[in-house]
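Late entry, written up from scratch paper. The run itself happened at the end of the previous shift, but nothing got recorded in the book at the time, so transcribing now.
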Amino acid sequence: MEHQEEDHLFCPANAALTLLGGRWTMHIVRSLLDGKKRFNELSHEHKINPGTLRERLRELEEEGVVTRTVLSAMPPHVEYALTPKGEELNGVFEAVAQWGRAWMTPPAKREPAACE
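Output as recorded:
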């Protein structure tokens, strides 16, 4: 009975927000929209703590948004890429960018962020 009640209360928007709302998650996904990246590339690109990055990548992998490929064992080299499910998030970024262009004012005295 409890399982049926959970299914009845499932909200896809809340589920997506829970996954994507984790710290750095959107930054990681956006970076991977440009193509495969190694762990250190992602870590240095955003100055993400390695423990936090590892946790976020694991969550995204478990959800089927990211794939993890071991390129070599010694030294360890791992590459991350978006799955088709992850690539579908490009539409989310496009919608957020469109909203930002319409409603956000760039901060004074700062270079505008590079957006595609």
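Residues 43 and 49 are 7 Å apart (CA to CA).
(Scratch paper discarded after transcription.)
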